[in-house]
Amino acid sequence: MSTDTTSLVARGAINKGDVLSVARVAGIQAAKRASDLIPLCHPVLVGAMLVNFRIEDTFIEVESQVETVDRTGVEMEALTAVSVACLTIYDMCKSVDRSMVIGDIALWEKTGGRSGAYRRVGQSDGFE
Fold first, then answer.
1. Which sequence positions are flagged as catalytic?
2. Alpha carbons 31 and 37: distance in angstroms, whole number
3. 37/35 Cα distance (integer angstroms)
């Protein structure tokens, strides 16, 4: 993403509107619909959902956090939220920057569920 594009996003100057607000809502909606999009994903009750952003010079980092009290994990819901939030950012910014790239999407941490806890090696507090 170009520095001009991130600057436009930060200032709320993209023609389609407030990019991060729309991307946040899109991510939340996507998490709730993950089982409709992914064939073998179980439907789960999403209890709490956050989608956060960090704007840097040449990129916007997207993070999601999903909580449930259901019998299975919500990794797919969190990953779907990030994916759709990124696609929304791309859609809203493509008129000014078609060279954008959606980069790595990865699970950083998980607790609970049948498979137990997981934490990606090398993770620090906050964004990487």
1. 91
2. 10
3. 5
CATH number for the domain that contains residue 26: 3.30.70.640
- Domain range for 35: 3-119
Angle at alpha carbon of residue 91, lines to 61 and 66, rounded to 5° = 45
Helix (H, G, I), strand (E, B) or coil at 125: coil
Look up residue 112 and give its two tokens: 């609970």
The tally of domains found in the chain comes to: 1
| pTM for the predicted model, two decimal places | 0.90
Digit-coded pLDDT (tens) for 80-111: 999 999 999 999 999 999 999 999 999 999 88
Element (H, E) at 118: strand 118-119
